[in-house]
Amino acid sequence: MTGTTATPDNDAGARRLCMIGLALATSVVCLDSTIIGTCGTVIARDIDGLSLYSWMVTAFLLFETAMIPISGKMSDRFGRRPLMVIGLVLFLIGSVLAGMSQSMEMLIVCRCIQGIGGGIIVPVCTAAVADLYPPEDRGKMQGILGASYGIGSGLGPLVGGFICSYISWRWVFYINVPLIAVCLVFTVGKLPMRSHLPTGRIDYIGMAVLTALLADILLFFEWVGNEFAVLSLQALGMIVTAIVIGILFYHVEHRADDPILAPKLFRNRTVVISMAIMLLYGLAMLGTLSFIAMYMIYVYDIDTMTCGFMLLPLVVGMMITSMGSGMLVAKTGYRLWTVIGTVTIAASLLLMSTLGSDPSNLLLEIYLFAFGFGLGCVSSVVMAAVQNSSAPSEVGMTTSSVSLVRSIGSTMGTAVFSLIIASRMDSGFADTMFGGMADAFGLHGTGLLRFVDMGLSQALSDVVVGLFAEGLCLAFLTIGLVFLVAVALAFLMDDEYAIEV
Question: pTM to 2 decimals?
Fold first, then answer.
């Protein structure tokens, strides 16, 4: 463990407490990325900010993604402990101020602060496993973090619905205060520090250029289909801008003393394959989580609390295999679990594409369990593979690069699902007897679901819900077919539990 001072090997109790803190921190950040889904409308109405609704999620995701590669690299240079403290404190401050927000503008700024904190916490938690545990135990520990990731993401809608229904939406943010306090107690003083600092200059130019590139990519997927059409000058302009900035970033990193994302990273076969798989993983996971709750609420006519409980099979499936695959990967190798996981994810997406507008409750629960089961097989195994194929001094950089592409994939997933659903709903609704009402009320895409909330007529509601279900099923089919690329890549993963020495 070059350049670091880790928790002593015989101090198992300290490592265990630290691992609990890391898992809890991961869960809290993931919880905040999905908790807005069921209470965002309530918040926006209360502080008169419906026109800026989408920025509650976008601001958090944008700043979180931009910080991931920076914090991963900085934790390699300065150690995990100071970065972890900074991330937890920023997340705590952002949460307190968000709960106190009196306007949507203030809340968005607070979500930016939360995003910066979250973007530091997640990659540092993942990289810290390599500091605390030897290679043969990393798969198991990554499995625990993977389960925490699934628990936080899956329980977000349920927790948000409960808090909004029985307490106050402000406690959606205040609840983070005691949780982050526990994380600080369990991790500060137990994470390793650098025994000496590197002498190379910090790659500030690379950080700035990479942040600009990520902002362009993320905003493109946020705005396409909403602010401008896919085939438009604005879309073309943002694509060209991304290409230009990408070329500039490539040249900057080749000249940097200590690059934020070293070019040699892309010569590591395991890292490249893992990045490609996790890009598709993020696309499938968040795209599904973003719309399956809405599907349940409108198709089954249930409240957010019931919807949250119906999502539990996905969380359970992910927990089982996140920990199971992590415990067994040292004996089985990476390929087996990656293949099982990607095949299961693809199959469950294709099966969900058959649900329609009158689905069997049991079938939906089975498909969600299978989806979570597949997700759990992949995440922890891929992270263990990346860490074990990396030099100790580069673990933060390599793991953060994989977390980065997973986050980009998540943004892409939400945008792709939204585009497919909106296209089907708009074209289908225009062909019905109610077609003229879309322009009259200024509603398009998933906004047409407002007609269901208005309760104007049962026939109108049935048409809108039916079109939404068709659009979502088409999205599942499309992403399921695209995900077959991840299945093919899974067969290229190393078959042995390889360790960098």
Answer: 0.84
